[in-house]
Amino acid sequence: MKKLSGRVTLPSEENFLNETKELLSRWGADALRDSDGTKLDKEIKQLNAKIYTTYFVARSHNEFAEQHPEEIQQLYLMSQYHMATGTKLEVTFMKGYFDEQIEPDYVHDPKKWWEVIDRTTGEVVNPDSWEVNQAENQLVIHQAQPWHEYTVSFLAYMKWDPTQMYNHMTNDWGDKPHEIPFDARQPYSNQFIKDYLVKWLKENPDTDVVRFTTFFYHFTLIFNHLGKEKFVDWFGYGASVSVAALQAFEKEKGYSLRPEDIVDQGYYNTTFRVPSTAYLDYIDFIQQFVAQEVKELVEMVHDSGKEAMMFLGDNWIGTEPYGNYFKDTDMDAVVGSVGDGTTLRIISDIPHVAYTEGRLLPYFFPDTFYEGNDPVIEANEIWLSARRAMMRKPLDRIGYGGYLSLAYKFPAFVDYVEHITEEFREIYDKIKGVKPYTGIKVAILNAWGQLRSWQAHTVAHGKWYKQTYSYYGILEALSGSNAEVTFLSFDDVIHHDIPDDIDVIINAGDAGTAFSGGEIWKESVLTEKLREWIYHGGGFIGIGEPSAYHHEGRYFQLANVLGVDKELGFSLSTNKYFTDTADSHFITDDTKVFHFGEGIKNIYALEQQTTILGQNDDGIYLASSPFGSGRSVYMAGLPYSHENTRLFMRALFFAAHKERELKKWYASNIHCEVHAYLEINMYAVVNNSMETQTTNVYVGTGIEHVVTLGPSEIIWEVCKDGR
Predict the structure, then answer these.
(1) What does the alpha-carbon distance between residue 317 and residue 326 come to, in Å, rounded to a whole number?
(2) In this protein, which residues make up the domain named Lacto-N-biose phosphorylase C-terminal (predicted)?
(3) Which domains does the chain have, with CATH numbers?
(4) What is the pLDDT of residues 175-188, one digit of tens each?
(5) Could you read off the pLDDT of 337-373 as tens digits, one per residue?
(6) Out of 314, 503, 510, 565, which one is annotated catalytic?
(7) CA angle 47–49–51, rounded 5-degree value
């Protein structure tokens, strides 16, 4: 077979010409890029490849930023809790923050823009009762209530860009200047951004793609006094706050924001928090502004004959690609880091762009590429996860980032990437633009809905928290399965009808989070619509603490649908009669080896009709229940694994009353999957493991045959007789 080429972007650097030529050939790359900390020299730019150039819109210009310190980016921060032992309390509000990154804002009047809160009562302390000692970065509260705790919400300047700071420390950049981020909303900065881009475009005629990294506002990343990460929220809008933004918000929305609307009791509106109306308004406000400004920059790039690409990360706040305004930016492409199948689908499903590109991990950085470590292990794990999702919705391009000279020192890694790039192109050439067979359509129901498509429970780039890996596995399982996935918000259900083509709705998460829903479950319209839809034949899967909000004697507000509820300690005196576990069931017939992660304790059956499929001393962890003509399934959690993916798919088909359709384009071996592309009369049998596997393969008619696949092998077959 002739070796394919193209659709791969290679990072390179100065004084690495011959090696770059070699890897361009071996990896079949057709584009070259620089990275944060590297540059492409003239000789490399003359190679036969498209040139991507990293472009920082609101950093990397210290000569400008230092002339306009009042326009450095700002954010609201909250002090640590301080307890008063007398009527006078001194709050050292910068304690725990990194003074090389953060500087309090004394340009704008603290009495107007800061907020002191008695956290014992929740009351705001009158500004007349406190004063600021600027020399000591200290706020003194007079007439404090002894034994109450207090916090200070203060405006600060962010004088070191968080990504450059991270890279600076990771790569030991020593005396390299700390890059100062400036605010596109401010007059001088706004004009400088546009004037400099015009100048830069003229000075870089050999650049084909301007890779914006990204635009104006960095996701919330604050470091502590040790220079370690203190607070990280990949979705956080904290760094978009400024006095100018707050004033513009009030003018546009008709009301003013409090500092508390941003600091949010110290949670900073993390994506796991149920978003307040004020915070949703603020997100909308920032997205509109960013989209308008980005559109102007993109027009300049287009006028110069170049393409505009956005990196899905770093300064991406306001450009969320599933938001209402992203389409207005006229962006040509989006590139983002791919750590698994879920992060691949975040990128590959993005609408309104000509192409998408995934930067496969690991970075070519010394924290991975060091003597004694084998980067192939990480690369292989990521590729097998990403490839599952690629079989459902492929990216248009892949690539890497970092120091190519580091990767070149690892021949086995170079060999493995050669295999990855070839396999990617084979998949792409066969199935791009072809809709794969899907046996079921599911909707993920949470507070964010479509805005955060494929992003529920996500930290970033395939990362999750210990408390959320039990839920993240849901999306990872779905990313490469024969299921069509959509995302609904609670407001979607409340204000609109549930779409007719949905088979199963999934609500998953810990109680009180944006993903379970919290207080929204008091809304009777929400429970009415869901109960009616399920009663008339819909399927519902609840994972963790679905519909959880203690109200009127129920904890799960859809307990009557799920057939289970959680014991909170209030009904211990009430006997729980239904404890028998079913010997067998459609959901568990395929495998008995699965686990539920952190799990949820004290789940019990409400009715005899609830079928208990798994339980231990901590309570039920798997159950199903009829509800009218519909069905529900309860799971205590679903970390990603091949076993759990199979269990989950069986649960989905059971909930949808589609048991007979499960074994269409299906592999009996849990480590294998079948993807059918009926438009082109082909299907693929995929081994998702690094071991040889044998499986029965069920085609569209249910007829089976046996296939043996080598480690991670894909076998492509032609559909026969219309099957």
Answers:
(1) 11
(2) 665-716
(3) 8-58+187-220+276-431 (3.20.20.80), 440-661 (3.40.50.880), 666-718 (2.60.40.1180)
(4) 889 999 999 999 99
(5) 999 999 999 999 999 999 999 999 999 999 899 999 9
(6) 314
(7) 100
